[in-house]
């Protein structure tokens, strides 16, 4: 039976968005309206949903937004030309090119083409470098959302053992850096880690980003540990599953995120927060 506290990403997200909305109203009076451009190449159904959610979030918050839907066979050259155009548009403060891109397009070339000041995904090498150094940067959205959710539990990160499963550039690596920034002691596990359970069972905070449905069950978890599930796996049944087997894990864990309704909504909220920050910087207001 689940006795664990469920961390509602939806609820935390709504609270943050309410604050962002208030700030946007104040900025509008100063002639600053945050603008986000979302670029989608091809017709991946999951991407369509995310892009729609992002456009809706913009509308709810009073942002200006543009959605550019390009054919799956769009050339890299044409995509880069659009990015350059958006870099030059003063009504656009944030640019997000939805990943993954079709195989004939080199993702790195596209990410590198986005102005670091408009890189609201936090994927550009300049922003990644600033994150590593600890300088001001636009933080990657999912990792920033994970930290917000942990903060929301009220559980102190400083001095705690945080274990991250996964070492991707978009989640595992940056979330490890952010946890360190919060003074946690961080262990990173990945597919070649030999004694994974031994490590995860020592975790006061466990962040799971492996991309495998229901990979982590109760046997990985120290009683009372905070568990953050970054996984979004679409099952054959059409249902969404996390990387954590919630039913099992929540019998031993402390506060734990569900999927859906956990990290996902926070990712979009952090995107909005980054776009607002980029807009303020562009207007010399931050
Ligand atoms: N350049 C780029 N930046 C991204 O941030 C990016 C991307 N590409 N490609 C795809 C992934 C995935 N992603 C999600 C965002 C929100 C939810 C989300 O809102 N999930 C809801 C459920 C949505 C549903 O029902 O499918 C939830 O977990 O409650 C999920 C996934 C952003 N991504
Ligand atoms: Mg989630």
UniProtKB/TrEMBL annotation:
A GO MF term: methylenetetrahydrofolate dehydrogenase (NADP+) activity
Domain of life: Bacteria
Manganese among keywords: no
Pathway: One-carbon metabolism; tetrahydrofolate interconversion
Keyword Acetylation: no
Family: Belongs to the tetrahydrofolate dehydrogenase/cyclohydrolase family.
Purpose of the protein: Catalyzes the oxidation of 5,10-methylenetetrahydrofolate to 5,10-methenyltetrahydrofolate and then the hydrolysis of 5,10-methenyltetrahydrofolate to 10-formyltetrahydrofolate.
Assembly and interaction partners: Homodimer.
The name this protein goes by in its record: Bifunctional protein FolD
Gene that specifies this protein: folD
């Amino acid at each position: 039976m689940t006795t664990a506290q469920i961390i509602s990403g939806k609820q935390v997200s709504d609270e943050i968005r309410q604050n962002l909305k208030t700030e946007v109203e104040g900025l509008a009076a100063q002639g600053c309206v945050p603008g986000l451009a979302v670029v989608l190449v091809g017709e991946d159904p999951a991407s369509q949903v995310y892009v729609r959610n992002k456009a809706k979030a913009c509308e709810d918050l009073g942002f200006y937004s543009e959605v550019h839907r390009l054919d799956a066979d769009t050339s890299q050259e044409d995509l880069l030309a659009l990015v350059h155009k958006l870099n030059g548009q003063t009504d656009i403060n944030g640019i997000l090119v939805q990943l993954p891109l079709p195989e004939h397009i080199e993702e790195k070339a596209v990410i590198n083409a986005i102005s670091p000041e408009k890189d609201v995904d936090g994927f550009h090498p300049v922003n990644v470098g600033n994150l590593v150094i600890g300088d001001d940067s636009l933080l990657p959205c999912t990792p920033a959302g994970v930290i917000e959710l942990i903060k929301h539990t009220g559980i102190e990160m400083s001095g705690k053992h945080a274990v991250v499963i996964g070492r991707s550039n978009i989640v595992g690596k940056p979330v490890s850096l952010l946890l360190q920034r919060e003074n946690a002691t961080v262990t990173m596990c990945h597919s070649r880690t030999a004694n994974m359970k031994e490590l995860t069972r020592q975790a006061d905070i466990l962040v799971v980003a492996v991309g495998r449905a229901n990979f982590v069950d109760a046997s990985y978890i120290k009683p009372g540990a905070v568990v953050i599930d970054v996984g979004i796996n679409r099952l054959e049944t059409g249902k969404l599953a996390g990387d954590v087997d919630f039913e099992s894990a929540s019998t031993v864990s402390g506060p734990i995120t569900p999927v859906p309704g956990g990290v996902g909504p926070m990712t979009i909220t952090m995107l909005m927060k980054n776009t607002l920050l980029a807009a303020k910087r562009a207007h010399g207001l931050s």
